[in-house]
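The record is kept unedited without comment:

——
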Amino acid sequence: MAFSKPFLEEVKRRNNLTDLISRFVPLKRAGSNMVGCCPFHSEKTPSFTVFPATESYYCFGCGAGGDAITFVMQSEGLEYREAVEQLAKLAGVPLEEEQNDRGRPLAPAVKKDRLFAVNKAAARFFYAKLQSPEGEYARAYLQKRRFSDTTVKRFGIGYAPAGWDGLCKHLHAQGFTDLEISTAFLGRAGKNGSMFDLFRNRLMFPIFDLTGEVVAFSGRRLSEDDERKYVNTSDTPVFKKSRVLFGLNFAKNDAQDGLILCEGAPDCIAMQQAGFGNAIATLGTAITGEHAHGHDDPCHHHRLFRPQLYLCYQDSPRFPSHQEGLRYRQRLRRTPARQGCHHQQGRSA
């Protein structure tokens, strides 16, 4: 999507660069400029400078520089379009209508605000079902894991009923269309054309982005007869599995040193409940190459938010995740920019 120059100027005008960067690193005035330690590499002497007069920044240590859009791209691992949309949302600037190369409006698709809305509606549905008589078995599992009521509420944990189309019917009643439901990976049309739920008889963990929006779900099986232990939302216009880490929306604000990378949502939640507010988790049992080298990988975030990254995975070499963890650590060791990674063995849910 090509944004018009007036639109981009308005977005940047409403997002003060100094305020934006101050959310990540402390800045001190130096004449007419602001200086601080660079958020993109380790340093003791500040070499990162913000120039308020031009609404730009530059690091004389690593060479990182740009404007508000560039900073969001670099700091949060977003693509250009995603960074512009996030800044527009923060500033309350309505998004321009998407156009083709000839400047004509494209055919309507599912807008992101509708995907955020349908995910939020689904999260509320799952949470209500957990509190209902249908969720008794799911509540028993949570009690077995010793998850407190406060933790369940904080993470919005819910229950997807075992029925065929309970969620889809509920979302239809809320005014959502088949296209919106299927695009969000919450339902799918069967051979007869009727919609059915993609999450059934599962403990549901909403996945939040860094702004607190529900963008996806991770569903853990409650029956051992179910072959798939986890069902996670596939990539959607608001969710990329290789770019989102479970629990980072909470962990980014924690004051402890280091991030603890767990294997799944239950482990992450248990760690945070136990006081390790810096725990996060990948969405699946294996660490992908994108997690190790992509824009939104754990080390990208730990470079920005924390000086250390700890891997907390299963303790048995028979499990692929253990081998993946060891291989991941080796990849980190071979990458000079990614320092401070430690591997801790443990048990997984």
Remarks:
- Residues 288-299, 331-340 have pLDDT under 50 and may be disordered.
- The domain at 112-232 is CATH 3.90.980.10 (DNA primase DNAg catalytic core, N-terminal domain).
- The chain has three domains: 5-91, 112-232, 248-346.
